[in-house]
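Work Package 4 report. The design task specified in the project plan requires that, given a folded chain encoded as structure tokens, an amino acid be chosen for each position. We show below one input record used in the internal validation round.
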């Protein structure tokens, strides 16, 4: 036996090519064209394209486009289907944000469809009940769900088909059932131990007394009835009619504060997206109460370095990216909040001059354990992401979420959905920009993004996943602009994730946080980063969930979908 092993070792040593062992991560693929780590080729089409995290939702979007619907119609239809098929990440109990490129006016429109805290829940309640932070589940983190109002705002401005037609595919799947996908089954099962105690959850989301398994058919007739009521009665059915009354009665019966008045007074807000120019590309995000401008701050800081020369997996690039993220997240922790309650210095935070000052704080050879937030001069005066493009050139970047896991666990009566727990994201520190107040929108993590070049649409994209999102937005842009990757490769490329920064919910970074690097970064890079003072951990994420559509100058759509999720990009 020993002699046989020696013979094998001699044979291997004498071979003219090296053996390379790959792990089963996102980079473990052999391809004859393109980057070896890419999981698939780009999807290419000219008439329409959809990229979602659920293959059936992608097909629904394409069907709506083929019926004459607009990109917005298709996006709403896909989102409604995902509320059924991915209750682990979204649903009409949550909020919505969108950026729309309108081909006719050649203009970007931004929609903030996030809901506000209950007006009857005072700030003093938490201290009086011994709470130093808002709980993650149950009635207290529930805020007004904004998604349905967001659908109708988008539809009124950009829709073509009747909402009854747009919602019909989701209604049919809710009645007849669909097979649950792999990752959704995994996260669903993880949510059950925490959420099954809340009234209504078991009846809707635990058929046979447990979470459905991969490939099992799941039906939600309660949600089908709710969708029908919304299709027939519009937004008022949800915010002023029987649905609103059922939500309010359920919350009151179970110790909650969300009222019929809170629902009836809700309205979305059309906002102007904001941008920074990164090496000739205008990168667009929505202003706070979301965290999108953190991606712009990261890009502004990194624009001062030659990243292409460093290389995508070099320790120099990873170090600089991490330090830029730390700086941006300190500002995120201090300044990002509901602009209706504070004057947020957005223009100053995303300015090139401010980035140049912040860049000076980075030590190119050493990780910093703590940064303070900047002081820009104030001048007066789990989530789903999807994107759809149509034949006329309209493009939609849409993100929608219940926030943590499947949401608060609060599942009203016979309605078939869970209310969000977004209110957990408030600060309970008096005087903080993001301090809890009645009728206020909490700090939001979900952010859609868009890129234009020379005033023309270039890229509609997003990366779901909490604090991961602005980091990955910046990395997608850098992967395409600095490292020359195509839209699919840019998402498949191994990712950098820094955790442990200061937060808008009062946590403060004192130890520099820690880095998680996906498979594909060399051990030499990891070793060098440790020597530079970074804490590098082996972790499985969350590294985000990406979808994107790029439009080339000749009008061809290039679609991409996340290899780490169940998603699908397709066109026609």
């Amino acid at each position: 036996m020993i002699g046989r092993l020696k013979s094998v070792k001699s044979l291997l040593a004498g071979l003219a090519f090296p053996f390379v062992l790959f792990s089963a991560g996102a980079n473990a693929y052999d391809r004859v064209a393109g980057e070896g780590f890419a999981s698939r080729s780009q999807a290419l089409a000219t008439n329409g394209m959809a990229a979602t995290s659920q293959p059936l939702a992608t097909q629904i979007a394409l069907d709506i486009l083929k019926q004459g619907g607009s990109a917005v119609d298709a996006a709403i239809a896909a989102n409604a289907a995902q509320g059924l098929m991915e209750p682990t990440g979204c649903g009409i109990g949550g909020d919505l944000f969108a950026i729309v490129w309108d081909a006719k006016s050649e203009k970007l429109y931004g929609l903030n469809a996030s809901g506000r805290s209950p007006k009857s829940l005072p700030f003093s309640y938490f201290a009086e009940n011994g709470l130093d932070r808002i709980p993650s589940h149950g009635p207290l983190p529930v805020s007004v769900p904004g998604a349905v109002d967001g659908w109708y705002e988008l539809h009124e401005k950009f829709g073509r088909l009747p909402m009854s037609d747009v919602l019909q595919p989701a209604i049919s799947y809710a009645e007849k059932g669909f097979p649950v996908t792999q990752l959704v089954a995994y996260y669903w099962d993880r949510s059950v131990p925490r959420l099954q105690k809340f009234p209504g959850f078991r009846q809707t989301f635990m058929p046979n007394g447990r979470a459905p398994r991969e490939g099992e058919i799941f039906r939600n007739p309660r949600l089908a009835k709710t969708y029908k009521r919304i299709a027939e009665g519009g937004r008022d059915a949800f915010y002023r009619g029987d649905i609103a009354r059922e939500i309010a009665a359920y919350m009151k019966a179970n110790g909650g504060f969300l009222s019929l008045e809170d629902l009836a007074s809700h309205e979305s807000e059309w906002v102007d997206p904001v941008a920074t120019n990164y090496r000739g590309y205008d990168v667009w995000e929505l202003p706070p109460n979301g965290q999108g401008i953190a991606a712009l701050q990261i890009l502004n800081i990194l624009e001062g370095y030659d990243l292409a020369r460093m290389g995508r997996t070099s320790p120099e690039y990873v170090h600089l990216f991490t330090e830029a993220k730390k700086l941006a997240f300190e500002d995120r922790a201090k300044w990002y909040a509901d602009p209706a309650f504070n004057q947020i210095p957005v223009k100053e935070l995303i300015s090139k001059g401010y980035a140049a000052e912040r860049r000076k704080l980075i030590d190119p050879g050493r990780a910093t354990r703590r940064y303070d937030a900047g002081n820009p001069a104030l001048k007066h005066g789990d989530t789903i992401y999807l994107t759809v493009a149509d034949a006329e050139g309209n493009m939609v970047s849409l993100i929608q979420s219940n926030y943590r896991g499947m949401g608060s666990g609060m599942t009203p009566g016979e309605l078939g959905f869970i209310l969000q727990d977004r209110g957990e994201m408030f600060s309970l520190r008096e005087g903080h920009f993001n301090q809890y107040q009645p009728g206020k929108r909490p700090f939001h993590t979900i952010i859609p993004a868009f890129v234009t070049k020379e005033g023309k649409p270039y890229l509609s994209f997003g990366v779901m996943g909490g604090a991961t999102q602005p980091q990955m937005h910046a990395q997608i842009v850098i992967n395409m602009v600095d490292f020359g990757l195509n839209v699919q490769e840019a998402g498949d490329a191994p990712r950098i994730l820094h955790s442990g920064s200061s937060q808008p919910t009062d946590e403060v970074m004192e130890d520099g946080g820690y880095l998680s690097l996906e498979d594909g970064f060399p051990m030499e890079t990891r070793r060098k980063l440790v020597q530079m003072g970074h804490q590098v951990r082996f972790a499985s994420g969350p590294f985000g969930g990406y979808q994107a559509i790029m439009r080339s100058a000749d009008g061809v759509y290039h679609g991409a979908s996340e290899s780490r999720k169940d998603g699908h990009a397709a066109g026609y």
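The chain has two domains: 44-270+384-425, 273-282+293-381+469-546. Validation will be extended to a larger panel in the next phase.
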